[in-house]
Design a protein that fits this description.
The protein is 29% helix and 23% strand. The chain has 311 residues and is α/β, with parallel strands linked by helices.
């Protein structure tokens, strides 16, 4: 439905026609409704009214706040060897960050920031692989932590980062922030010349969004404040001087089983519900995995990894 409220797209700046979608909070099953506006120009989505009590929707057991899992020295040594082999093209199981670092050719001495780092697990795995200047920023962690001399977590926002960086990463973080324009502008200013910005994020290009609408699991009302299209995010980044390098769709089976769960009115936390058990069976997962691979190849998966470069 159209809206009479004057809105401006957070990504392309369009002011005019928006379609409003009434979306339920489903992760925790509160059932509250929140309005999202879709831009008629770039297709990006944004929450119309951000709740004043937004922090209440991030309880202590929220997934990104789980305890950091550290490995034994021997296991870390194996991780170091694995990444070294991967970097030179020897076929091994890559670490989760392997493809990103190889694509950008990030050296181990690079100064790297992970914005919205949560418990810092990704940075820890990079530390184990030999990276030596790692910083995590997240205003919602309980306290600042120095994990080791090479890895520190700061209870600060993107606007409180100190110094400059060779790589800034945001893994499913930008969609949780207000004013993505200010965030990208800050990142551009904090990057060294030749530095990289890596953004992994749900995107409104998703076929699941087109097919299933308000039941799309990655709407995640009201925690996701904005969900860009690839076109919208690219235009915004380029407006601040970034050069778009590459887009890789990396959606998973979650887009299918999570959306079907929400269609059935079942909370993501209700793991004992018969529908949850049915949707996450081995056979269903195999089918969803094949479908996710196809969607990613076609560029219609529900999340993507975007590489931006500061020339």
């Amino acid at each position: 439905m159209p809206t009479d409220k004057r809105l401006s797209c957070s990504y392309c700046g369009h002011e005019g026609d928006f379609t409003i979608h009434h979306v339920k909070e489903m992760m925790f099953g509160s059932g509250e409704h929140f309005d999202y506006a879709s831009c008629s120009v770039c297709g990006s989505l944004q929450l119309v009214d951000v709740p004043a009590n937004l922090g209440d929707y991030y309880p202590k057991d929220y997934y990104s706040f789980q305890e950091l899992v550290q490995s034994s020295p021997f296991k870390n040594f194996l991780k170091l060897i694995r990444y070294s082999l991967f970097r030179v093209g020897i076929p091994v199981q890559p670490p989760v960050f392997g493809d990103w670092m190889v694509e950008m050719q990030v050296p181990k001495h690079a100064r790297i920031a992970d914005v919205g780092c949560g418990n810092g697990q990704l940075l820890y795995e990079m530390y184990a692989a030999g990276f030596i200047h790692l910083e995590g920023y997240d205003p919602f962690i309980d306290r600042e932590k120095t994990i080791n001399p090479r890895l520190s977590l700061f209870k600060k926002s993107v606007f409180e980062m100190e110094g400059s960086f060779d790589l800034i990463m945001m893994h499913h973080a930008l969609e949780h922030m207000e004013s993505p324009d200010r965030v990208l502008e800050q990142c551009f200013g904090k990057l060294n010349k030749g530095g990289w910005l890596l953004v992994r994020i749900p995107v409104s290009d998703a076929q699941v969004w087109k097919d299933e609408g308000i039941n799309w699991v990655q709407l995640d009302a009201p925690r996701h404040l904005t969900i860009p299209s690839v076109k919208g995010l690219t235009a915004l980044a380029e407006g601040f001087g970034f050069k778009a390098h590459k887009v890789v769709f990396d959606s998973t089976v979650f887009q299918f089983w999570g959306t079907e769960l929400y269609k059935g009115g079942v909370s993501l936390r209700d793991v004992q519900h018969p529908l949850y058990i049915s949707l996450t069976s081995a056979q269903r997962m195999k089918e969803y995995q094949q479908k996710a691979l196809l969607y990613n190849q076609k560029g219609i998966g529900d999340q993507a990894c975007l590489y931006f470069y500061k020339g």
